[in-house]
Design goal:
CATH architecture of the largest domain: Roll
Radius of gyration: 24 Å
Mean pLDDT: 82
Shape: globular
Low-confidence stretches: none
Order of helices and strands: EEEEEEEHEEEEEEH
CATH topology of the largest domain: SH3 type barrels
Number of helices: 2
Number of domains: 2
Structural class: mainly beta
Strand content: 35-45%
């Protein structure tokens, strides 16, 4: 399922152990290497006043209409407890608010939201608010992840022209084959068989 990333901020974390809400997501932690969400920083009354309480995506059972469902608050960690989480946490990468530029370094705007696939929690598209001068024609741009060339802490560089992927043709066994659509020329043997 595709969902806006902003819908998952301030989302409830529900515990199966207590049957209640135990926290809220505060911000996502995105790995800038592949734009995958690895977890969420948390806030809430059950968070023991500690700064940096975190839930890894691997510890979430499912995402439902109620919010994220986990087994218990024992799933909460500190970022320093997992090496990969600590490394990404220390980068401080924030996707929302980052500048987007084309390959000629011309500013296209700032990221205001993104869509992600809940199957793997990978960012699929960026929603970019255009600068005031350019916003008369287009107020927002939607940029697919395949257009991204480079990601740094300060900006995301994208191709200025979208490349439309060619649709793939899947042949169904036993289906009618149009002889005029063959990709290779017919051989002599095939020509004599048809006569």
């Amino acid at each position: 399922m595709i969902i806006l990333g902003s819908k998952l901020i301030n989302a409830p974390i529900m515990s199966l152990q207590t049957g209640t809400e135990v926290a809220l997501t505060e911000r996502e932690l995105i790995d800038p290497e592949d734009l995958a969400i690895i977890g969420y920083d948390l806030k809430g009354p059950l968070i023991r006043g500690d700064v940096g309480t975190f839930i890894r995506l691997a510890d979430i059972r499912e995402l439902s209409d109620l919010g994220f469902i986990i087994d218990s608050i024992d799933e909460f960690i500190k970022p320093s407890e997992v090496v990969k989480v600590q490394a990404v946490h220390e980068l401080g990468f924030q996707l929302v608010g980052i500048d987007v530029r084309d390959e000629k370094r011309k500013k296209l705007g700032k990221v205001i939201d993104y869509t992600l696939d809940t199957g793997g929690f990978v960012v699929q598209q960026l929603t970019v608010r255009r600068p005031l001068i350019h916003s008369f024609n287009d107020t927002e741009l939607v940029i697919h992840r395949s257009q991204i060339i480079e990601i740094s802490k300060d900006c995301i560089v994208v191709h200025s022209e979208a490349k439309v992927p060619e649709p793939s043709r899947n042949e169904v066994p036993g289906a009618y084959v149009n002889p005029f659509r063959k990709t290779r020329p017919m051989s002599e043997a095939e020509l004599t068989d048809e006569r």
